[in-house]
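Researcher: Let's run the pair from yesterday's discussion. Sequence first, then tokens, for each.
Model: Starting with the first of the pair.
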Amino acid sequence: MNIRVASELDYPALRRIYLESRRKSFYWADIEEMTLEDFDKHTIGEYIILAEEDAEILGFASFYLPDNFIHNLFVRPDFSGKGVGGQLVTASIEKMNKPIRLKCVSENQKAMKFYENNGWKKVVEEGNSEEKYWVMVYE
């Protein structure tokens, strides 16, 4: 598996991964409101890396370097649980300065477990009654 910086040529595949992954796993959200354009809106000004194998994009991470903050981590649903997310998190950590933060929606128990298994710690739960999330830190 190869991890590299994404280019605009990769964006069509990244848009599909973002949309498909969110529609499959964000059971608490209205999937009808999700669009391909969300990827562009939700990654403005972010550094984006991707994982690929045999020229096929398997997932991506986007982060905001000035704040050492991982904003997005998404893997194609058919590659979930195969180490793609772990490699993307490791590559993200190597690119930023510690401590590194992220927010994980409280309802997303699968993601929460993934991060905790990879050394992240819950700091505080924030948000409103419609969408609570945990601020997590990696030191």
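Model: Moving on to the second of the pair.
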Amino acid sequence: MTITVRYFASLREALGSEERLAHAAGMTLGSARDMLIASDAAHAEALARGRAIRCALNQQIMDEDTAVPDGAEVAFFPPVTGG
């Protein structure tokens, strides 16, 4: 089982536009983030727990405790403001 992970704004610059991630039963948005943080130094820096990062599941902003179904699209992006 896999999910598609997309990155936007400064995260896209650091990590690229998207990647595939193996999906485990019971995965949440938060555990997906933790798995990515543990994968390498670039992900650890870009997605660090001290950084304000928003997450979305299938194009809807969600909390990190939201379950991720197989085949889902997960997105991470920094908070943005309009002007």
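Researcher: Give me one sentence on the second I can quote.
Model: Residues 2-77 form a domain with the Ubiquitin-like (UB roll) fold (CATH 3.10.20.30).
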